Amino acid sequence: MKMRQKLKEARQKAGMTQQQVADKLGVSLVYYQKIEQGTRTGDFEIWDTLEDIFSLHQKELRKL
Predict the structure, then answer these.
(1) How buried is 62 (Cβ within 10 angstroms: 0-12 exposed, 13-18 middle, 19+ buried)?
(2) What residue numbers bound the domain in which 33 lies?
(3) Along the 64 residues of the chain, how does pLDDT read in single tens digits?
(4) For the whole prediction, is pTM greater than 0.85?
(5) Residue 32 and residue 24 in contact, taking contact as beta carbons nearer than 8 Å
(6) Of 2, 54, 55, 59, which alpha carbon lies 20 to 30 A from 48's?
C-alpha cells in the first residue's frame, strides 16, 4: 500500500496530528487516516480544505 507521502509530509510540516486534520475536515480520524494511506479518495470539499490548510495544491497532495 502506498501512502500519500506529500500529504503526510505537509501535515507533519504544519505540526498537525492526523486527529487535528480530521477535526478541521469534519471527518473521523479513521477516515482521514485512510485518505492519507491512499485507500480512500475523499471528496472535492475535503481536498479543497486540505489545500487551504497546507497551502499546497491538491495535485501535489494527492501524489502516492
Answers:
(1) middle
(2) 5-61
(3) 568 999 999 999 999 999 999 999 999 999 999 999 999 999 999 999 999 999 999 999 988 7
(4) yes
(5) no
(6) 2
Dist CA 13 CA 24 (whole Å): 16
* 3 φ, ψ (degrees, to nearest 5): -80, 155
Q: How many domains does the chain have?
A: 1
Q: What is the DSSP string of the chain?
A: ----HHHHHHHHHTT--HHHHHHHHTS-HHHHHHHHHTS----HHHHHHHHHHHTS-HHHHT--
**Placement of cell 507521502 in the chain:** 5
